[in-house]
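Notes, p. 3: input format for complexes.
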Amino acid sequence: MDVTLLLLALGVIAAMFGVVATRFGFPGFNKIAQVALALALLPVICRFHRKLYIICKILPRDLKFLYRAISAEIEVKGQRRNNMTVVKIFKKRVDRYPNKTCFFFEDQVWTYSDINKYSNQIARVFQEAGYVKGDAVALMMPNRPEYVAIWLGLGKIGVVTALINTNLRLQSLIHCLRIAEVKSIIYTEEYTSALDDIKDSIQGIGRYKVCFKSQICESGVCDLNKLLSEASINEPVVKDEPNYRDKLLYIYTSGTTGLPKVAILPNSRYLLVVMPFNLVGLRSSDILYNPNPLYHTAGGMLGVGFAILKGIPTVLRTKFSVSAYWTDCIKYNCTAAQYIGEMCRYLLNAPPKPEDNAHRLRLMFGNGMRPQIWSEFVKRFNIKRVSEFYGSSEGNANIANLDGRTGAIGFVPLIVPRVFHPLAIIRVNNQTYEPIRGSNGLCIRAETNEPGMFIGLIKEGNALREFNGYLDKEESQKKIIQDVFVKGDKAFLTGDILVEDEYGYIYFKDRVGDTFRWKGENVATAEVEGVISNIAGKRDATVYGVQVPGMEGRAGMAAIVDPDSLLDFKTLAEGLEKALPAYARPIFLRIVKELEITGTFKLKKMNLQKEGFDPSKIQDKMYFLSGNKEYVEITPELYQEIISGRRKF
Ligand SMILES: *[C@@H]1O[C@H](CO)[C@@H](O)[C@H](O)[C@H]1NC(C)=O
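Output follows (649 residues plus 2-acetamido-2-deoxy-beta-D-glucopyranose):
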């Protein structure tokens, strides 16, 4: 039998004996009994002290989370019960404070009423043109208040807006317009030539042009400025009103491989921004800074959703700018800001200036702040709270870091038993990323500190737990697994490898597809990129695996931006040796003038990967990690040695 339990039992018996003895007039026994009980409890405390300590430590966090999550959940239930839509809630805001600022943009101030009037005009123009609920219209426009007013207006008559990444051209632009089956596209003058280039492939798709600078409209193009100026600013009369479940937006997910996919955003999903609103702890007195592109979930849903649904005045900006960042925050008195991806590193990279902490930002929330720069960032810019938020446009697995734990993307509350969690980390095969199943055919939860795939359990009918999927049914199926923890249940595979520590904090390890195997080990590219960038003076770098004839797996290669050839290779090699295990250090380097980045500041690496390291094909200078010690330039001779297997590494 368990010694601890035996001692505990004996202690309890002794204590009871002591109580009885005292009752019958032998008070001396009481002392002895107390001591016995204390001694018996000692091993129990010793054994579980770690657990007890952890519980005490996380209790305030978990209680705060439960309170916020439950409030959000109640709000979400109410939205469903009342068949709410984004435009209905927005209308409530307009009625409540028509003259409150909704958006700041450059030197313009747009009140709730201004946005509403513009959106009414949009609704009327498209209603007049015969558009009905369920039709789709594409929108290609730089960030500005009209952008939001346009999709809100279309939302009033149930027309779905497909938000087009403004960087897209040619084949990918055609693809995006086609898969969403849009009837027309609304665009601004900067994209005229992009559309002219694909004219023959998009016949049948109507063109509505909005001009902000010039006033010229080609023949065959509808002049939206003119149509709007003739339309009434009053609420449109809508017979077939959109419902809670009806589609509002299409957002394209920027996959690292292949062409973009369309993620469906019904009203029910957009309304979920109340969840992060509660979780990250925004206040109704906040002013939000959002320089992110409005065609992505981050900037378009979280970044403007708080303005539309919660009445938070929001600053929009055509483009994120390092030099304007803090001066903007000061100018508009911002108290909260949204970040994405690499933005924080760009800011940290800029030389210090007085504006760095002359602003009033108290909260920054977003996605992708690297753990390596987190502390430095918070200190230099004096940000009280960084709230990293994890989620995807289509998925149902969302978590947030609400106590500012450095590096964590969120946590799961430990005081709630795991079977009630809608999220889990499961074991997966580390090459195929297929879930590993036990003898009962079900998935297995990863242990503490064991990396695994993050999944969200699907529950139909609950907006927080359902998976809205892609327009492409097959693509949707690929993301769903069955029989997860009980027969017949379903879960959404996020594709992200996360790890949970003993406090329940969750850390990002890797995104599937962003790893390669070398010397029998998995190398996480995001991690290596973080390290390189830190050693190499915050330069941009992208890491990928390249094939070497005769070698298994892929050798690590890093493309580093160094236009002025100032990179110190010796420091880099030494730093990498310190920071990374041998298998993770890049074997090859490629020095580039710039790196192509996607709209979310993710670096594109597919092409680099294909090009490899052949000096006869590539103009850029390339280097090889010789003897695991120093980088030497790759000459045609060295290249031959490497690919013929004469050079060992
Ligand atoms: C910012 O605050 C200052 C002082 O509180 C005020 O004078 C100014 O008008 C505010 N700016 C904006 C854009 O609201």
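The domain at 515-644 is CATH 3.30.300.30 (GMP Synthetase; Chain A, domain 3).
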